[in-house]
Amino acid sequence: MKITFFGAAGEVTGSAYLVQTEKSRLLIDFGMFQGESETAGKNCVPAGLDPTTIDAVVITHGHLDHTGRLPLLTKAGYRGPIHATSATIDMSGLILRDSAKVQAQDIERTNRKRLRAGKDLQEPLYNFDDVERTMQQFKAQPYREPVPIAPDVSVRFVEAGHMLGSASLQLTITESGRAKTVVFSGDLGPADLPVLRDAECLNHADLVIMESTYGDRDHRSLTDTLNEARDIIKEAVKLNGKILVPAFAVGRTQQIIYHVLAMFRNHEVPPFPIYIDSPMAIEATRIYEKHPELYDEEARRLADAGLLNLDLHGVKTCQTADESKALNDLSGTLMIIAGAGMCNAGRILHHLRNHLWKENTTVIIVGYQAEGSLGRLLVEGRPEVRIFGEEIAVKATIHSLGGFSAHAGQSDLMKWFNCLAHAKPQVVLTHGEAKGREPLAQLIKERHGLTARLPMFGETIEL
Ligand SMILES: [Zn+2]
């Protein structure tokens, strides 16, 4: 058996692993490269991967960096099944359609300029029709039950606790009458992420391919983060102004709503209206509501008692731009959650322009802010920022909350690996930059005497 790494090898995006056995060829994830790798032309079907020879594709979870190249596979002639959990199919649909939309908008802008410069026009990687054809190929699979996906391979989806529908994969591969177990961690969530179940321990593997995004460190604890969030919100309520939360639509938005509703329920802060100002976040929240079978015990108890019903708690939604604009005229304390998470685009920009200059505005930054993004400038405490070409004074209070990651920190990664370590598996670390995966490899060496491999793009390893 051989595995070739066509992404997320020494970096955190573009997950794609080709598994070749005696009888079959499987692709695990086929994600988009983001950031610098995106611009390096890596978002393609790589040489050495002939889509028409693949027997099955298996997807660990819906994030774009794990699903974003799937339509390219369909375009290049792949007609076989794409196996995933039911919630992952819903999330993939949402995320791939949004990707097609963003590409269409970007290409329109680019082509307007190219036209004026007398250059050839460009095409997006894929469009809506390509995405719809890809969605037809998905096949929903249950958690925990082994599913045959090729003559010599079965797969078991196991909770990974990272986003709704996320899974680790346990592949059983039978070659020359001998069965071998290969485990792909997928992206692993931290323990105690709200709503979601924790990542499940697996107890056997001959080979483990494991993510290492935060292999070098632990996050701030959720308890500390929530205590800080509560204090910030109490102060914001006293100011009687708007609370702006730039947030990614999937995952982060739902977590924040969950925590704020808990504060209302426990009478820690007086209730105020919450607006989800993002059609994509509204749709993602509906997908969460559609899958109560995936909730952890606490969320299920709340759901059974009707306490997770968003309508009951004054959570309101803005589908259209006009509804979004109407928020300007509202007074008093209210929370607006809008994209984009790094304030580099989206409806949050309008809210920031309209309210940053007011002293009673509170901005709560909850995610990673890349160098140069507006979010980063706010976190750095700039007295003035430019939005839509206009100088805006920053009089609002800006807070940055670091503990809401959907990725396991070092301790949780090691806890997950410890369950498998007794079988002395071969270990491969992926989905991490050098600063994440090298310290994790070191720790695995010290604690278990196992030498992890750290493959780069295009490398093949044999079991
Ligand atoms: Zn992910």
Please describe the topology of this protein.
Layout: E1 2-5, E2 16-20, E3 25-30, H1 36-39, E4 56-58, H2 64-67, H3 70-75, E5 82-85, H4 86-116, H5 128-136, E6 138-141, E7 147-150, E8 153-159, E9 167-175, E10 178-184, E11 207-211, H6 222-239, E12 242-246, H7 252-265, E13 274-276, H8 279-290, H9 297-304, E14 315-317, H10 321-326, E15 334-338, H11 348-355, E16 362-365, H12 374-379, E17 384-387, E18 390-393, E19 397-400, H13 410-421, E20 426-430, H14 434-448, E21 460-462
Parallel strand pairs: 3-4, 4-5, 5-6, 10-11, 11-20, 12-15, 12-16, 13-14, 13-15, 16-19
Antiparallel strand pairs: 1-2, 1-21, 2-3, 7-8, 8-9, 9-10, 17-18
Helix pairs in contact: 4-5, 4-8
The site of zinc ion (ZN) has 4 residues, from loops.
